[in-house]
Amino acid sequence: MTSVKAMEKSFYKDVLTGLRSVPKRLEPKYLYDYRGSELFEEITKTPEYYPTRTEMRILKKELNSISDYIGDEAALIEFGSGSSEKIKFLLHHLKGIKEYVAIDISESFLLQSVEKLKKEHQHLYVHTVCADYTVPFSLPSLKAKKKVLFFPGSTIGNFDKQERKTFLNRMSTLLTKGDGFIIGVDLKKDEKLLHSAYNDAKQVTRAFNLNLLQRMNRELLANFMVENFEHKAFYNHEEGRIEMHIESLKDQLVTIGEEEISFQKGETIHTESSYKFSVQEFQNLAKEANFIPKKVWTDEENLFSVHYLEVKA
Ligand code: AVI
């Protein structure tokens, strides 16, 4: 497990590097401290944020077909927290899953949510791995013969071009012939729908984004005045992605630890990209990473897709 101290140190280093870059940017993984993870769960319940509930609807509707692809004796390996309705639903309904591995960057969130799962599924072998899956890591040794990775929620969309390539390649090296990968991928669609999904009326997404400033205040002794910044999210058509930024509302100086960072009015920190794909675009990416696209399930409105990929020899 990565120690908290080591994480803080790299957080500090990455923050300084990111805020000294032009344009300023921070890696989206830093949005997910405990509070950030809580706020993300809240986002998924807003009426505007369609991905979570649409993916859930697909999983429910296609349960039998998914079950056929997973088979009878599989270990399900999930990237992200173990708290989502999706994993609870699959573990409850798919009797072929004998073992479950939860991998998450937020240790406290991971342990808490997995504790609950363990109580509800006493027959299941449960493993937890606190890891940043954007860097190499290894899986615990498993009893089950078949491995199926589960990466829901279109988190793949939060990686840039190179990162997603590296990630998919890394996933294929964790698997052996016949193993599978179930991955949720958000689809390209009407831009108004996309815009409101990242600008919800209750401003939960705003709170999620601005929590990053509060996190830096809490953990890095920074002095961001949150009221001097604003959430900004828009669809970048050319790049095919939602961009989330934190905009400075005035010229200002912020202290982070020993360092000072200056912001001009209107300058932004790019905190997250959320790429959207067509089914074909995603399947092409999968093929380049040694996967065979076996099946894709979508909803009636074509908002979201769930793919079953099989690793090649
Ligand atoms: C986790 N990830 C797929 C979310 C997304 O839609 O890109 C994170 C998020 N950011 C703002 N709202 C949701």
Descriptive account of the structure:
The chain is of the alpha/beta class. The chain has helices spanning 4-20, 34-43, 50-61, 63-70, 85-93, 107-120, 161-173, 191-197, 204-220, 279-288; strands spanning 24-25, 74-79, 97-104, 125-130, 146-151, 180-186, 229-236, 241-248, 252-256, 259-263, 268-275, 291-298, 304-311. A hairpin with a 4-residue loop joins β7 and β8 (241-248). α2 (34-43) runs antiparallel to α9 (204-220) and α3 (50-61) runs parallel beside α5 (85-93). Bound molecules: N,N-dimethyl-L-histidine. Residues 43, 51, 153-155, 157-158, 198, 205, 244, 272, 274 line the site of N,N-dimethyl-L-histidine (AVI). N,N-dimethyl-L-histidine (AVI) binds at residues 43, 51, 153-155, 157-158, 198, 205, 244, 272, 274.
Q: Biggest sheet, strands in spatial order? A: 4-3-2-5-6-13-12
Give the H and E element order.
HEHHHEHEHEEHEHHEEEEEHEE
Portion in strands: 25-35%
* Distinct small molecules: N,N-dimethyl-L-histidine
Structural class: alpha/beta
State Rg.
Answer: 20 Å
Largest sheet: 7 strands, mixed
Overall spatial form:
globular
Counting DSSP E segments of at least 2 residues, the number of strands comes to 13
Q: Count the helices. How many?
A: 10
Helix content: 25-40%
- The termini sit apart by 31 Å
Uncertain segments of ≥5 residues (pLDDT<50)? Answer: none
Average pLDDT for all residues: 93
